[in-house]
Design goal:
Elements: H1 2-7, E1 15-18, H2 24-38, H3 58-71, H4 81-87, E2 88-91, E3 109-110, E4 113-114, E5 120-124, E6 130-135, E7 138-144, E8 149-153, E9 162-168, E10 175-181, E11 189-197, E12 207-208, E13 212-221, E14 227-235, E15 241-245, E16 247-253, E17 258-269, E18 278-286, E19 291-301, E20 305-313, E21 328-337, E22 343-352, E23 357-361, E24 363-369, E25 374-384, E26 393-401, E27 407-415, E28 432-435, E29 459-460, E30 468-479, E31 482-490, E32 494-497, E33 519-524, E34 534-540, E35 545-555, E36 558-570, E37 584-590, E38 599-603, E39 610-615, E40 618-619, E41 630-635, E42 656-657, E43 668-675, E44 679-687, E45 692-701, E46 704-711, E47 718-726, E48 729-737
Parallel strand pairs: 4-10, 12-19
Antiparallel strand pairs: 1-2, 3-5, 5-8, 6-7, 6-9, 9-10, 11-13, 13-17, 14-16, 14-18, 15-17, 18-19, 20-21, 21-25, 22-24, 22-26, 23-25, 26-27, 28-41, 29-34, 30-31, 31-32, 32-33, 33-38, 34-35, 35-36, 36-37, 37-41, 38-39, 39-40, 42-43, 43-46, 44-45, 44-47, 47-48
Helix pairs in contact: 2-3
Length: 739
């Protein structure tokens, strides 16, 4: 399998792992040796690394780890050492080197040219760096840098070639530069240094977006004679820069000497230049007889104003932090400047592509946003028409303009209403999960205290850690299509229908084929009544329900934290559902913040279908967080739909197909559309290949607003497109069916 990781497209750059099943303890020791090779202080008692590597090179560390394993006496299975030697390989470049910290730039200086008769080349670089000089792919000189000038011995080279100077050092970026090998002339004038003056801009000595800057260019004469009246011209082919003053004359430059014209050249960075864009320049120097070319570049800096997040404030509505249909709210939009350039005089405008959303105050300003800075801007009185469908996703566009011609835009979406005010499901069998916030179908927190320790009339099961008890039910109970007359109650916060004595000791996701199955997970975690509390049951005969309660049961890992909740199952003969399956309500009287790692939900008999309300700190997108006084009802009864009579509403002003709700869905979803005029209307659903799978509307429709339901039963999970056509109007929405 190691080879498979390395072969996949966009896979690992390098990989060390076993090619087959291997053995844990010898592998652990081998790994210690790998770490000690790259970080010698890992095992202070181990001697010198036999591979001789002093850098973070995994391939060398792989070999060192095997030496380390061979010399060790720790594993209890030394006969398996040979397996590790044979199975672990480095897949990748043998000299690949890791960074152990954010890499930095090396500081390297050297002459820009090499003359043929030179037998040494001076390079100054950071101490400990390796300097290599190559010509035509062959190394002609190597030295270790000291931080001062080091003369690297070389053989005389032929003119017309190019010498590459390469400098490397652990945790530094590689430095590579080309040096021309030239015949020495009377004059040879090339670029040496650059100064930048942006006093008319923000005066930070950098080239920023939209700035005009003056350049000071230092040139050097590598010829044998003094150079006089040298005309220097700069040019570029970069579309993001303009040269405003390109030429200056340097009067006299002695042999080996330098000359400068201060603020002699002028360039401009255009207003659309990308951040950190490198502008390449060519410098031409001529004495009238000969012309010498050299090159330099300037990095431009620009802001990148980005949308980060938004919060909604609706104190005049239901104050739930969402924009609901018929509600007016304020938006606080968080932005940041992720570019390397500062930006000032910002103006923000907010637009929405949904015609039923009105932004009454859509513009605001900000004086300055520095590089790396953050800010919050506000837009007030944003109104959602009451005809906007609950759960509809609407798109907002944030337009930004600023000083020096900077412009950008960003998009973000807002779900109208709170999706969590809708039930989870149905699952593929038909069960829904309703919590306290799910409208007309929401359960009521109806606590019935049955724990004897709290004065209740229930029976203590006297469970210890990881123990179960089998109970007879007072009525037959149908669950996922199967009838049961017994339940198994576990101290770990779950119960299953029928006999279930084999179970995984740790909580797992839902659905999952590993036992327990056919279960209700109230708070499935390592709860331990042996440390306190009670697990008890009670037959509430008068109300046709059976109750199991975990009262003040602590967590094994943290005995000071306790949970109190109960599972109520209702007699299906009295509490009727469309499928005949029973309803289950889980009440949470006292829950801690420690439950985030638990499992909450229900699962069928073989662990293939279920509803996962919470698992491992991740709630379902439609789930409200558990809290004291919370309740969840599991039922196959479909949600009650409360629809205002559409005929009483005023005619819509525009054609519109709203986003389906819910989305993703399983198996049904709802769509609404508006017609300002009567006419023939078609609404067709296609799969991603463009094949028609359903025709929802086909014929004459009067002007008005309509709701339709699409049932995805019998269709595979995937992306579907719904397209409406009415006269010259057409619109398409994307829907996601997840089973």
């Amino acid at each position: 399998f190691t080879e498979a990781f390395h072969r996949i497209e966009h896979g690992a750059l390098g990989l060390i792992a076993a090619s087959e099943v291997s053995y844990s303890f010898v592998n652990d020791t081998y790994q210690w040796g790998v770490y000690d090779s790259m970080w010698p202080d890992f095992d202070p008692g181990y001697g010198m690394d036999l591979t001789g590597s002093n850098t973070l090179r995994p391939c060398f560390a792989n070999a060192s780890g095997k030496y380390y394993l061979q010399t060790s006496g720790w594993p209890s299975n030394p006969n398996n050492k040979a397996h590790t030697y044979h199975l672990f390989h480095h897949h990748g470049d043998a000299f690949i080197t890791l960074y152990s910290e954010v890499p930095q730039e090396l500081t390297v200086t050297h002459a820009p040219v090499l003359f043929p008769d030179m037998t040494g080349f001076a390079v100054t670089a950071d101490s400990g760096a390796v300097i290599a000089l190559t010509v035509n792919g062959e190394i002609i000189g190597v030295a270790e840098a000291t931080g001062s000038s080091v003369n690297v011995p070389i053989e005389p080279q032929q003119p017309g070639n190019t010498m590459n100077v390469t400098v490397t050092l652990q945790n530094y970026y590689r430095y590579t530069e080309e040096v021309d090998i030239i015949t020495q002339e009377e004059n040879y004038v090339i670029f040496r240094e650059l100064g930048l003056n942006d006093a008319t801009g923000n005066n930070n000595q950098l080239l920023d977006l939209g700035e005009d800057v003056l350049l000071t260019i230092v040139v050097q004469n590598f010829g044998t004679q003094t150079a006089s009246n040298i005309a220097v011209t700069i040019s570029t082919e970069d579309d993001y820069a303009a040269i405003l003053d390109s030429t200056e004359v340097y009067a006299s430059i002695p042999s080996g000497g330098r000359a400068v014209v201060y603020d002699g050249f002028e360039i401009s960075a255009l207003s659309n230049i990308p951040d950190l864009h490198v502008i390449d320049f060519t410098m031409s120097a001529t004495n009238g007889d000969s012309t010498w070319l050299s090159f330099f570049n300037i990095t431009a800096h620009a802001p990148i104003v980005s949308y980060q997040d938004h919060t909604i404030s609706d104190p005049t509505g239901n104050n739930d932090g969402h924009l609901d249909p018929g509600e007016t709210a304020d938006f606080d939009v968080s932005i940041s400047n992720e570019g390397s350039g500062d930006v000032s005089d910002l103006t923000f405008t907010l637009d929405c592509t949904e015609p039923l959303i009105t932004i009454n105050n859509n513009s605001t300003t900000l004086g300055e946003l520095s590089s790396g800075g953050n800010a919050v801007i506000s837009f007030t009185e944003i109104t959602a028409d009451e005809d906007v469908m609950q759960g509809d996703t609407v798109l907002f566009v944030l337009n930004v303009s600023a000083a020096n011609g900077y412009e950008t835009s960003a998009e973000f979406s807002v779900i109208v209403g709170d999706l969590r005010r809708n039930p989870i499901g149905p699952d593929t069998y038909g069960y829904y999960a309703y919590d306290l916030y799910d409208g007309p179908d929401a359960p009521v927190f109806d606590w019935l205290e049955i724990a004897p320790q709290a004065g209740g009339s229930g029976t203590d099961l006297e469970l210890g850690d990881a123990e179960t008890a089998l109970l007879d039910l007072p009525f037959p109970f149908r669950f996922y299509g199967y009838d049961y007359d017994q339940i198994t109650v576990c101290s770990h916060g779950w119960m299953s229908f029928g006999i279930d004595t084999v179970f995984f000791p740790m909580n797992r996701p839902i659905p999952d084929g590993v036992p327990p199955n056919k279960m209700v997970a109230g708070i499935w975690d390592d709860l331990n009544p042996a440390l306190g509390g009670q697990v008890c049951y009670y037959d509430d005969y008068d109300n046709f329900r059976f109750v199991v309660e975990w009262y003040d049961v602590p967590h094994s890992a943290n005995p000071g934290i306790e949970e109190t909740f109960q599972v109520m199952i209702y007699d299906p003969i009295v509490y009727i559902t469309p499928t005949g399956d029973g309803e289950i309500v889980v009440n949470y009287q006292d829950v801690s913040n420690y439950i985030d790692g638990c499992t909450v939900g229900i699962e069928n008999h073989d662990g293939t279908v279920g509803i996962q309300f919470l698992y491992d700190d991740e709630y379902d997108a439609l789930a409200m967080p558990l809290e004291d006084g919370f309740a969840i009802k599991y039922s196959t009864a479909e949600p009650i739909v409360v629809t205002e009579a559409l005929s009483t509403k005023p005619l819509p002003k525009a054609y519109l197909l709203s986003q389906n709700y819910p989305n993703p869905f399983n198996p049904t979803t709802h769509l609404s559309f508006s017609l300002p005029k009567s006419g023939n209307v078609s609404m067709i659903v296609y799969d991603i290949q463009g094949r028609e799978v359903a025709r929802l509307v086909d014929g004459w429709q009067n002007a008005g607003s309509y709701n339709v339901t699409f049932d995805g039963n019998g269709l595979a999970s995937g992306i579907y497109l719904v397209r409406i056509t009415a006269g010259q109007f057409s619109q398409t929405r994307k829907m996601v069916l997840v089973k």
